[in-house]
Amino acid sequence: MEIWLNPACSKCRTAVSEVEASGKEYVVRRYLEQPPTVAELEDVLARLGLEPWDIARTGDAKKLGVTLPAKDAEHRHTWLEAMVDQPRLIQRPIITASDGTTVVGRDPDSLARVIDAG
């Protein structure tokens, strides 16, 4: 299991605690220090069945001085590039189980689903 996290985030700390309590093995990726590539984001989005804007922290864009484009196919790559350049835009935590199940683990149901898939 891999957890993309920001250690300052309470949702991330909760996710790590839940995974640890389950006894599942996991690795941590501090995605602010080691941002994903466009290809890695594409892979995660495919597993999530979402678009980049679905996992973006749009409220943080203004704080970061980022102007986000329209939410459409034409601008999809621009979204991906913005998220790689400013990884704080990526919602957290993103957790991928060994079977490929991937969730944005911000709620108990999502955490349970990925831990069960573990």
From TrEMBL:
What Gene3D superfamilies would the database entry show?
Glutaredoxin
Species annotation = Nocardioides antri
- Tell me the lineage of the source organism: Bacteria, Bacillati, Actinomycetota, Actinomycetes, Propionibacteriales
Q: What's the name of the protein?
A: Arsenate reductase
Q: Name one Pfam family in it.
A: ArsC
Q: Can you tell me which family this protein belongs to?
A: Belongs to the ArsC family.
